User: What shape does this take?
Amino acid sequence: MTDLQFDRSFEVTPGTAVQVSPLVRRVLVNNPSPYTFKGTSTFIVGSGQVAVIDPGPDDAVHLAALLDAVRGETVTHILVTHSHADHSPLARRLKAVTGAKTLAYGTVEAPSSSGLRLDASIDHDFAPDMTLAEGDVVNGPSWTLEALFTPGHMSNHMCFALQEEQALFAGDHVMAWATSVIAPPDGDMGQYFASLRKLLERDDHVYHPGHGPSKRDPLPLVRSYLAHRRMREEAIRARVAQGARSVGEIVASVYADVDPKLHAAAALSTTAHLDHLVAQGKLRKVDGIYEAT
Ligand SMILES: [Zn+2]
Assistant: This one.
């Protein structure tokens, strides 16, 4: 199952602001891992009066790098795509230093019951000053950001469209370097499919994801992710129909092409697919065991 073409060309020095387009700068956090790739990307939008998107983990070195990058400028808004621990925690300290308001969809209700600690675990303390809804617009003198609600990777995930550049800050919804981890109970595969389809109705020219390189002409990638997820889901349904009962058994065969280091994440995505199959009536769950219908 090697139908996807990932782009892992991303040689970026952490802590140094890089201009990625006329209105956008990126500052990479020094938090590389199998789940964050080279690290989390923080974006600075505009100049003079700027918005910061995804401040990153609570990291004093990254805070200093961000403040250095915006020296002489005013941070007016801090936007957060979702409250995973590698995206939102530094919002508190950045807000304390700059006085900017934090904006995001909102907090999450679901407990993280999986017991698995991924780098992308939930920042339960995150609570934005202002909640954003689908279509809400945040302005600066030279930029306009529109909120797009894209749950799936996380229940409070938003992308932000920069209207002046037909660019989309895609968070962890769509990334060019790898597929997104969908970790139940907060991650939801049905929502994820719907949020991918939502992007197909748009005309964004470039995505700036939360990890890895930007992606120009992104819609073929979105289509390939949808096709890839459908294929995985069908393979998982078929394994259950053939008698596989445990998630581990399914992962070993369906994700044989994936680095074993990522099998914990694959197990979470498999559970998300199994729940989605049950929701569609393609499997049933009896006493915690998935069965063919
Ligand atoms: Zn995430």
